Amino acid sequence: MKSWPYLYNQWYATAWGSEIGRELTRRDLLDEPIVLYRTQGGVVTALSDRCLHHHYPLHRGCLVGDHVECGYHGFTYDPSGRCVRIPGQDHIPEKARLRTYPVVEKWKWIWVWMGDPEKADEALIPNFFWLDDPAWEAVGSSIQLQARHQLLNENLLDLSHVEFVHRGSISSSNLSEHPIETKVEGQKVRISRIMKNIEAAPLFVKTMGLPDRIDRWQVEEFQPPCYHVVHVSAGSPGTRLDDSCQYKVINAIVPERPNRSRYLWSVSRNYRREEKWVSDYLQEAVQRVFMEDVAVCEAQEAMISSLPNPPTEMLAKMDTGVTSARRILAEMKLAESQETSGQSHA
Amino acid sequence: MKSWPYLYNQWYATAWGSEIGRELTRRDLLDEPIVLYRTQGGVVTALSDRCLHHHYPLHRGCLVGDHVECGYHGFTYDPSGRCVRIPGQDHIPEKARLRTYPVVEKWKWIWVWMGDPEKADEALIPNFFWLDDPAWEAVGSSIQLQARHQLLNENLLDLSHVEFVHRGSISSSNLSEHPIETKVEGQKVRISRIMKNIEAAPLFVKTMGLPDRIDRWQVEEFQPPCYHVVHVSAGSPGTRLDDSCQYKVINAIVPERPNRSRYLWSVSRNYRREEKWVSDYLQEAVQRVFMEDVAVCEAQEAMISSLPNPPTEMLAKMDTGVTSARRILAEMKLAESQETSGQSHA
Amino acid sequence: MKSWPYLYNQWYATAWGSEIGRELTRRDLLDEPIVLYRTQGGVVTALSDRCLHHHYPLHRGCLVGDHVECGYHGFTYDPSGRCVRIPGQDHIPEKARLRTYPVVEKWKWIWVWMGDPEKADEALIPNFFWLDDPAWEAVGSSIQLQARHQLLNENLLDLSHVEFVHRGSISSSNLSEHPIETKVEGQKVRISRIMKNIEAAPLFVKTMGLPDRIDRWQVEEFQPPCYHVVHVSAGSPGTRLDDSCQYKVINAIVPERPNRSRYLWSVSRNYRREEKWVSDYLQEAVQRVFMEDVAVCEAQEAMISSLPNPPTEMLAKMDTGVTSARRILAEMKLAESQETSGQSHA
Asked: pLDDT digits over B304-326, tens only?
């Protein structure tokens, strides 16, 4: 299996803004331990979670104003990572600096930049305005899964799993009869399936008030390193797309450790926005659906990890999205490596 | 410790027939993941549990008629392992074939052949007719243990453990005073101990209605790769062997993983066959006894695994059965390797 | 991080005398499995826990008089490690000897010598007379922790952690303003902090009946390979040291496995010796405090183990004790290695 590389010069969505407050919160990204917190001014800060002194996890310490005090011997760091106190001594070496990570709070999510801070351009953050636009109502959650992030990312790159994994929730029978179109646009992969006059899955009937048969548009856009927006639209047969009920599923599946990931998802809808029961229903129903995907990926991870040398996969037509993404990521990794090695020669 | 090799051209008992039905059941054998099920016609089928597509465990999918449908993207396989459906495409490559394993249901057990299918001769299955002969009444179970299969196999090759491990259940004091005779007959090892006028262990008094002192014959036959039949006969002192109460303990201890095994056992008796309380008593009592052996092997496994380099064992007279079996297995492995390398040159 | 080496020619305190009786007790030291028991005469014996026969853990067997009988096949060993019985055979090979460890019961603790038995001089056991001197009253316990022994040893070599880890128990605010003096005396490290007219921590007020402000002397002596005595004295401001209430905290943190240790601690006091509630209070309160240290070390261990290459530590003034101990241990290890290699050439 061709593995997804770690890309460093990227923004990684690692938490909902609501998950980060005045408590020290530990998150891992690309194998690096990170502590997150909000300053008194409300700004989210991301520092290495490892105290320079004796490797103690800083998230077990406490916040003193905007400073992080190590819970072991009191080394204290300001939000820029600079050590501002070493108990028992006046001089603090210049090099006493924690690694700090560029961090931005946008679209209600916390985005951490893992590579060269000089390149941390906020404009590179994907446009997920649906997450906090008042014209859309969003629900969502944050899940840790025991599987490499490639697995759940590839799950989302292949819509054909819906019929098998989500039977009885968002699937309809014979979904697979509807052709999937996959297009590569630069570094993005766009996968679409238009289904006219199909049996409506329960979720559509329930929350959209649609009849038993519907037209359904499903367009997914993958954007490296690990983001997916699924544009779902539905209406009675014959409805124009503009008049349809729509929701956007925003997905981030970020690598925490080689065999562990974090999954942030949201569903933002443009219909029945004020009806709380719809929010509650979607929160619960979509979480249930995604936990089906999580279970699939964890079972796959267990199988792959147990095989000394996993044999070649037999790729199929349905894998066009998967193979396109693999190729894009490999090219990006190559470019990133060349750039980095160029820098080190400069 | 001289380790038991994996022998491939062998039948492995991996389940009771009653454990395999119209549900997909996962079993591991010699480090290979296998899915077992019964066709509509009742025939047991054994396929690789790893979908060719993305390594998803097939046992998490479902049976469609006699076909296995992968629970992830719907790749579907017939009982011969041939892929008969790839959703979204018409052409199915010729090489899209799961490994299938020769499988036979015999003596109420499911036997899987792990080597060259050409050599899978049903006549090589050990004769365990006591398991389903109406003249015998059988109980038994199926246990997974966290220990390499060598440990429980060698446990059964050395009857002298009975006095120490099974004190209070099937042992009698001073059992070890009765000499053990070990004979090698071809690839089989035969270990016998005849005990005249000994104190009767509780099981004999209880289920056979024997007095406090008995004559007891115990003859064990080991047959590669991992089978043991223990012929136990008992009667009042002076009883002829033909008039004794007899039971056969049939044991299979098959390797699942390097440090994990499956233990199938059965006790078949020729006395009080219709008395259900005797069946219940034996089922419960023998299971308890064998769980004592399982606990021993798991403790041994923990010790061995924790030692970076387990030192040499100090073998004793009582290990004649153990060393004979090790020698036989090593010779068989050598023969198997030569045969296989011969094939690959052909 | 410069790791603490295993030193072999040393006494290791591995249990309270009260923990070892007529049951077989398993302890690990320096990665070696050891079984401990008391003979009928009350003498503590330490043998390898691995039966020579098939690596079965001897502590799962039983004591027959003063002999250890293996619970698997009955190999039996006397307290000198000599095999005295092999069931089924008369001849016992001369080399059938378990490794035995010199062991001494002193100051209520069990001390095991892990190196060359010729060098096991009882006089090398540290003088911890406070543990059983009638002028002192002792409480204490025995804790297993999932962390390398270096971590808790170094915790005790740096008093500055008290203010941060033990806030609200034995700490007082601004403890760190009081200078710590570290002196190396041969192979010992002596760390002292004298605190005049400080706020009294709850433990002092409660058990010593002292006022809210006190004078407190704290002198710690580290002695290789893993022993610490903390001499704590306290009184009303202006009290002479001789008139103070005193307690001694005796600590042994011995390596069991690379990432596992055992912690024996005791608090011996010279005040209110007959008042049981003080003993109960100290037992409970000090255990709670030390569990705070254990939690710190386990979190540190998790961080260190998770880093592929833990970077260099940034040592501070407060680490004088830590670095002195590391240097002393490295010198001792070098001397021990030279000595041993000298022997092997002899």
From this structure: 999 878 788 999 999 999 999 99
Predicted confidence (pLDDT) per residue in C19-32, tens digit? 999 999 999 999 99
Q: Which helix or strand (DSSP H or E) is residue B287 part of? A: helix B276-306
Task: Provide CATH 3.90.380.10 ranges for chain C.
Answer: 134-307+315-332
Q: Is C126 helix (H, G, I), strand (E, B) or coil?
A: coil
Instruction: Read off φ and ψ for residue A183, nearest 5 degrees.
Output: -130, 140
- Is some CB atom of chain C closer than 8 A to the CB atom of B301? no
> If pLDDT is split at 50, 70 and 90, which confidence band does C346 have?
very low
A130: how many CB neighbours lie within 10 A of its CB? Answer: 23
- Interchain contact B86–A (C-beta under 8 A): yes
A299 touches chain B (CB under 8 A): yes
Pairing of strands A227-235, A213-223: antiparallel
Chain C residue with Cα closest to B178:
C88
The answer to whether the beta carbons of residues C198 and C175 sit under 8 Å apart is yes
CB of B173 within 8 Å of a chain C CB? The answer is no
Cβ <8 Å between B73 and A307: no
Domain A12-124 CATH class label: mainly beta
CA distance B197 to C310: 68
- Nearest-5° angle of CA A40, CA A132, CA A27? 55
- The ipTM, to two decimals, is 0.92
Q: Which chains does A contact via 3+ CB–CB distances below 8 A? A: B, C
Dump pLDDT digits (tens) for C111-143.
Answer: 999 999 999 999 999 999 999 999 999 999 999
Residue ranges of chain B that CATH labels 3.90.380.10: 129-332
The CATH class of A129-332 is: alpha beta
Task: Convert the pLDDT of each residue in B32-47 to its tens digit.
Answer: 999 999 999 999 999 9
Any alpha helices (H) in A192-319, and if so which ranges? 202-208, 276-306
Closest CA to A194 of A226, A225, A227, A234: A234
Using CA atoms, how far residue A315 sits from A107, A181, B345, in Å, is 36, 16, 32
Of C55, C88, C89, the CB nearest to B303: C55
Rounded to a whole number of angstroms, the CA Rg of chain A reads 22
CATH 2.102.10.10 segments of chain B: 11-124
C134-307+315-332 homologous superfamily: Naphthalene 1,2-dioxygenase Alpha Subunit; Chain A, domain 1 (3.90.380.10)
Long-range contacts of C78-83 (CB under 8 A, 24+ apart): C79/C39, C79/C43, C79/C45, C79/C47, C81/C47, C81/C48, C83/C52
Give the whole-angstrom CA distance, residue C287 versus residue C268.
14
Measured between alpha carbons, how far is A310 from C287 in angstroms, rounded to an integer? 49
Query: What is the DSSP pairing of strand A32-38 with strand A44-48?
Result: antiparallel
Contact (Cβ atoms closer than 8 angstroms) between residue C85 and residue B318: no
Whether B60 sits inside 8 A of A307 (CB atoms) is no
Task: Tell me whether B73 touches chain A (CB under 8 Å).
Answer: yes
Interface of C with B in 13-42 (CB under 8 A): 33
Q: Does C256 touch chain B (CB under 8 A)?
A: no
Residue intervals in chain A for CATH 2.102.10.10: 12-124
CA distance C280 to B189: 63
Q: Is A67 on the interface with C (CB under 8 A)?
A: no
Query: And the tokens for A305?
Result: 């990890």
Q: Has domain C11-124 been given CATH number 2.102.10.10?
A: yes
- Which of B60, B87, B93 has the CB atom closest to A318's CB atom? B87
Could you tell me if B173 and B207 are in contact, meaning their C-beta atoms sit under 8 angstroms apart? no
Q: Which helix (H) or strand (E) holds A104?
A: strand A103-106
Min Cα distance C195 → chain A (Å) is 14
User: How far apart are alpha carbons B136 and B271 in whole angstroms?
Assistant: 8
